[in-house]
Amino acid sequence: MSHLWRRHRHWLAPTLFILPGALLFGVVIILASIETIWVSFFDWDGVGPMQWVGLANYEQLFADPQFYVSLKNNVIWLAMFMLAPPLGLALALLLNQAIAGMKFLKSLFFVPLVLASVTVGVVFTWVYDPTFGLLSLIYGWFGATAPALLSDEHLVSFAVVIAALWPQVAFCLVLFLAGLNNLNEDLIGAGRVDGARGFAMLLHVVLPQLREVSFIALAVTIIGALRSFDMVAVMTSGGPFGSSTVLAYQMYEQSIFSYRFGYGAAIATVLFAVMAVFIAWYLRTLLRPEQETA
């Protein structure tokens, strides 16, 4: 047995380490996803017997005006969340400077990462309060009245996304700071010899070395925008009148409160399809330059 282990340990050791996580991922993610797709073809209240309805849940979904409101809000989340990586990179470039007091500033920007999303939602709910919140105090200094952002069906989604951007920008900041600390000093020195300064140094020397970090930041940001749920649940519960609902929250609402688990599974399946298509397109776009140069 020991001889067999020594002979094959180059692949046995990593396999044994990866196997528990792979099994957990397979059961919790893969099997659960397959089960969700299967449930979407049934009418089920979560307790009683399941009744096969075929594509009826999807027909109801695509005829539901609330579905398109939720889909529009997901697009708003995605578009605004695309600000997180460039903002995180800009802050990382600023905080990476060797200036006195910069470590203290870094700790301030790291605060959102140690706060739960529920805490962030509660804090921004107070900030947006038009009566005694921080926004009302700022408007009061100029003799104006603060708008009730969370009660305005046209502005509520933007207000919630801005709240969610705070920790997302901090997450991207940490990623880019780690990337900046691992830059190749020889390449930077060669760039300086060739006369690269400022933006030219950033564009031609620094950013190419941050390609992998940028990929992670963008991928996590996209997934976070598409699966947005907790901030909506905490700050608005989908209101007013469903105007801030996203697909993930609509799925939760239909499944838990309306006991329509088949319909909720159909929403989850559509959300999964949208996410898969977008990520596949993003990966294809990202990997195309490497394939062309190979």
List the helices and strands and how they pair.
Elements: H1 2-39, E1 42-43, E2 51-52, H2 56-62, H3 65-81, H4 84-95, H5 102-110, H6 117-128, H7 134-141, H8 156-180, H9 185-193, H10 198-209, H11 211-226, H12 230-235, H13 247-257, H14 261-293
Helix pairs in contact: 1-14, 2-14, 3-8, 3-11, 4-8, 6-8, 8-11, 9-10, 11-14, 13-14
Family: Belongs to the binding-protein-dependent transport system permease family.
Transmembrane segments: 12-34, 75-95, 107-128, 155-178, 199-225, 231-249, 261-283
Domain ABC transmembrane type-1: 70-284
> How much strand content do the residues show?
under 5%
Mean pLDDT across all amino acids: 87
Largest sheet: 2 strands, antiparallel
- CATH class equals Mainly Alpha
Q: Oligomeric status of the shown chains? A: single chain
Examine the coordinates and then state which fold CATH places here, giving the name of the CATH topology.
Answer: MetI-like fold
Any idea what the CATH architecture is? Orthogonal Bundle
User: Any idea what the CATH superfamily is called?
Assistant: MetI-like
Tally of domains:
1
Provide keyphrases for this structure.
294 residues, mainly alpha, two-stranded antiparallel ribbon, MetI-like fold, 1% strand, single chain
Can you describe this structure in just a few lines?
This protein is mostly helical. Helices cover 73% and strands 1% of the residues. It has helices at 2-39, 56-62, 65-81, 84-95, 102-110, 117-128, 134-141, 156-180, 185-193, 198-209, 211-226, 230-235, 247-257, 261-293; strands spanning 42-43, 51-52.
